């Protein structure tokens, strides 16, 4: 850009580094101070959770892997906000495991990845199958 300004559009990680402005004319050359460019990345998903259908009393596992710079924090939520009390575990790889699935666990589960640059969400649905679930649904519609 005119006036000695540098503009980098659609920055990428490999644009990060040290930059120097060099001005030249017929009498010589001068360099500016070094300017360092750091490129941060909004969270994005390497692995998104997939929809699951499980039987009552089985376990369900939703996988989620996010990247970004700085490294995003990852958390889970259920559509009503509450994860199944005392029956869920979030592993080091951010996998959400729900033990002894019940009919009330049906719904949408969302993986939320967040860092100082932004936030990303990915959701999957848990469907619970079994005779007890059919009975609960039938009673709910009676």
Itemize the secondary structure elements and their pairings.
Layout: E1 17-19, E2 22-25, E3 28-31, E4 35-37, E5 41-47, E6 52-55, E7 60-62, E8 65-69, E9 73-78, E10 88-90, E11 96-98, E12 107-115, E13 118-129, H1 131-141
Parallel strand pairs: 6-13
Antiparallel strand pairs: 1-4, 2-3, 5-8, 7-11, 9-12, 10-11, 12-13
Domain Ig-like: 43-127
Organism: Bambusicola thoracicus
Protein name: Ig-like domain-containing protein
Explain what the structure shows.
This is Ig-like domain-containing protein. The protein has 142 residues and is mainly beta. The protein has a domain at 41-129: Immunoglobulin-like (Sandwich). It is built from one helix and 13 strands. Strands 6-13-12-9 form a four-stranded mixed sheet. The N and C termini lie far apart (70 Å).
So what's the CATH class of the domain at 41-129? Mainly Beta
Mean pLDDT: 89
How many helix segments? 1
Describe the sheet with the most strands.
4 strands, mixed
CATH architecture classification of the domain at 41-129: Sandwich
Envelope shape: rod-shaped
**Which band does the percent of strand residues land in?**
over 45%
Q: How do the strands line up in the largest sheet?
A: 6-13-12-9
Question: Element order, helices and strands?
Answer: EEEEEEEEEEEEEH
Cα distance spanning the termini: 70 Å
Structural features:
8% helix, 142 residues, four-stranded mixed sheet, three-stranded antiparallel sheet, mainly beta, Immunoglobulin-like, 46% strand, Ig-like domain-containing protein
């Amino acid at each position: 850009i005119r006036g000695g300004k540098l503009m980098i559009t659609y920055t990428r990680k490999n644009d990060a580094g040290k930059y120097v402005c060099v001005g030249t004319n017929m009498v010589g050359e001068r360099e500016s101070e070094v300017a360092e460019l750091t490129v941060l990345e909004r969270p994005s998903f390497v692995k998104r959770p997939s929809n699951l259908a499980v039987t009552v009393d089985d376990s369900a596992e939703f996988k989620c892997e996010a990247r970004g710079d700085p490294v995003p924090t990852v958390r889970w939520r259920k559509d009503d906000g509450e994860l199944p009390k005392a029956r869920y575990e979030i592993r080091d790889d951010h996998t959400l495991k729900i033990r002894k699935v019940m009919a009330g666990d049906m719904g949408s589960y969302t993986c939320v990845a967040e860092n100082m640059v932004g936030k990303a969400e990915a959701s999957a649905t848990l469907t619970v199958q079994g005779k007890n679930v059919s009975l609960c649904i039938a009673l709910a519609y009676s």
